[in-house]
Specification:
Layout (H helix, E strand, L loop, with lengths): L2 H28 L3 H26 L3 H31 L14 H4 L5
Helix pairs in contact: 1-2, 2-3
Amino acid sequence: MSDSVRDVITAVLVLAGALMCFAAGVGLLRFPDVLSRLHAATKPQIFGLMAITADVAVNNLSIGTITLVVAIIFFQSLTAPLAAHLVGRAAYDTQHLRTDLLIADELKPYRDGRGR
């Protein structure tokens, strides 16, 4: 791969990763409640990380680098949604969210004791 093509790919991937990370930061500051902020923090952050690590793989093409990039993306894709779920559940249990923004509250029967 020529250097000019690699530079264009690098610029596109780094710019895409930076924009996604910036969108996650703006979402954390602008969204009104915990659940919305968690959505903004996890989704763009994962895609931004994917773009940046893909750029690392493009610039240093080796088996070790590709293995490391796959491991980073795999474990980050597992841990970020799980952590967001746990924080969201804790916010729900402690009533640190705006219930007027919920479309459907499927956990309410369990919280009130009428569920299982």
